[in-house]
Amino acid sequence: MSERVQFEVSDGVARVTLDAPERLNAVDPEMLDAVVAHVEAAGADPAVRVVALTGAGRGFCSGADLSGAEESDGELDDATLMGVGAVSRVLVACPRPTVALVGGVAAGAGVSMALACDYVLATASASFILAFARIGLMPDGGATALVAANVGRARAMRMALTGEKVPAPLAEEWGLVSECVADDGFAARSEELLEQLVAYSLTGAAATKAAVNAASLDLAAALEVEERDQGLLLRSVDAREGVAAFLERRRPVFRGE
Q1: Would you say residue 132 lies in a domain?
Q2: What is the three-class DSSP state of 181?
Q3: Considering 82, 104, 114, 177, which has the largest number of Cβ atoms within 10 A of its Cβ?
Q4: b/e per residue 76-91 (b: at least 16 CB within 10 A)
Q5: Which domain holds residue 121?
Q6: Do the Cβ atoms of 42 and 8 come closer than 8 Å?
Q7: pLDDT tens digits for 32-58?
Q8: 137 in helix, strand or coil?
Q9: What is the pLDDT of residues 153-212, one digit of tens each?
Q10: How many CB atoms neighbour CB 242 within 10 A?
């Protein structure tokens, strides 16, 4: 298990915390594997009635950790791509209600993981960004389905193609997230929501999740396309240029290769 993912169970709530605050909880494959294992364990534990996913410090998750790409000349492998997809799969399939507590930026993989949860509670200062286009990539982790299921095709395309930052109040207005609260009321509202969900019937919650997801979300199909096409993009010249430009803090020059 990764030391950068904390897990605890108390009063019916399993809390999974991304714990890499120095990089705004950017994720690596080891962290993603740990999240999957913890969510699977929580879903099988009769003492757990709700699973909460959150991030330590001032960010929820800033996306994939690209710090190692500099050593590989900007080349990216597909381990993080597959890991994020696995997290989204396990969150959607979990028989317990899942809640994303977003107290800061959610970017890239962070958006996918948050929206794979059943309820997204965000602070007013939080934001949501699909920044893949900035480095020559496409949304992954199920984001192409998860975002569109919440906000519709037009806004999903807007987020994916422009990479604009969507502040949490606007995200709530769009329907991207379930609820946005003032920063100073976030902790209290988080506990109130978790207590409310703990009181629900386990069988009723599981049946509700399955029905709503069956009616609104084809995650498997989206992940199949994302993992195929993103796998190709990760090996492209444009992706290497995009990552290099990101690390060098300059604008990328894409050549369509």
Answers
A1: yes
A2: strand
A3: 114
A4: bebebbbbbbbbbbbb
A5: 5-183
A6: no
A7: 999 999 999 999 999 999 999 999 999
A8: coil
A9: 999 999 999 999 999 999 999 999 999 999 999 999 999 999 999 999 999 999 999 999
A10: 24
In a domain, 251, yes or no: no
Residue with tokens 């050593």: 71
User: Is residue 137 situated within a structural domain?
Assistant: yes
- State the angle between helix axes of 29-44 and 79-93 in degrees (0 to 180), rounded to the nearest 10: 20
**18 and 4 Cβ atoms separated by less than 8 Å:** yes
Strand 59-61 vs strand 119-123: parallel, antiparallel, or unpaired?
unpaired
Q: What share of the chain is helix, strand, coil (3-state, %, to 5)?
A: 55, 20, 30
Spatial separation of the C-alpha atoms in residues 114 and 168, rounded to whole Å: 13
Asked whether residue 26 is assigned to any structural domain, the reply reads yes
76, 134 contact by CB (below 8 A): no
Q: State the Cα–Cα distance between residues 173 and 6, nearest whole angstrom.
A: 32
User: CB neighbours of 121 closer than 8 A, spacing ≥ 6?
Assistant: 99, 100, 101, 102, 177, 178, 179, 180, 181, 186, 189, 190, 193
Angle at 193 between CA 192 and CA 197, to 5 degrees: 120
Question: How many domains would you assign to the chain?
Answer: 1
Question: To which residue do tokens 């049946």 refer?
Answer: 207
Instruction: Write the CATH number for 89.
Output: 3.90.226.10
- How many CB atoms sit inside 10 A of residue 21's CB? 14
Q: Are 29 and 83 in contact (CB under 8 A)?
A: yes
- φ, ψ of residue 195 in degrees (nearest 5): -65, -40
Task: Tell which residue, 127, 108, 132, has the closest CA to residue 166.
Answer: 127
